[in-house]
Amino acid sequence: KGKGxxxxxxxxxxxxxSLRVLFNGxxxxxxxxxxxxxxxxxxxxxxxxxxxxxxxxxxxxxxxIIEKFQNLVxxxxxxxxxxxxxxxxxxxxxxxxxxxxxxxxxxxxxxxxLTRLKNLRTLNLGLNCLETIPTTxxxxxxxxxxxxxxxxxxxxxxxxxxxxxxxxxNVKRNPLPEFAKEDEPIDTVKRIESLYLVEKKDLCNSCLxxxxxxxxxxxxxxxxxxxxxxxxxxxxLTTPNSTAIDNQEEWRMK
Length: 254
Description:
Radius of gyration: 28 Å
Shape: elongated
Distance between the termini: 69 Å
GO cellular component, one term: cytoplasm
Oligomer: single chain
Keywords: Leucine-rich repeat, Repeat
Structural class: alpha/beta
Protein name: LRC18 protein
Organism: Urocynchramus pylzowi
Largest sheet: 8 strands, mixed
InterPro entries: Leu-rich_rpt, Leu-rich_rpt_4, Leu-rich_rpt_typical-subtyp, LRR_dom_sf, LRR_domain-containing
Order of helices and strands: HEEEEEEEHEHHH
Number of strands: 8
């Protein structure tokens, strides 16, 4: 009953012991990091749960019996080896959260039925093998957050970009044309050198006044002659160049 070619066997007793009641009253099956390679059929006995966490396992397939979990609101399947979803995933009409990050999903592995999840608010498809995104995902009009990072996407459909409630769209580390010329890493040595070459004409009036005021303070300090035992320290003193740091983007644009 340990780990083997089929992964760890999950019995009904183990599943029941993994059931947690959350502060909001929902019941969650916490089966993360259990070495599961095959979706446990015994979970059908607990098909009325609202949340399931099967992340960080060795799952390759999600069976069509997933349609039995009609109360599901939250489903976490990240960090498995899933390469396709069953069409039955589209029957989970109450689902608001679906995490499929870090799997092996291809574009063909996304069934059209995925667009039937009309209440879905969070969908994470990052770290997969997607080359395109179905334009039909534009039907998920309740989506607030969509993760598409670390794939092989060269275009994001307009229907997805223009989702009415979308607030967070993560498409980082894809070969998209708009990211072809990414910012080069900052050379800290060059950055420091440039700060010391700031001229008065490159600073706005408020920054210039602040720098001049601090320069006057430095001149006053030069006239001070403290004794050897009471040498003053000024840990919070802001130098003209540190002030320029906060405003460098503004004067660079000018």
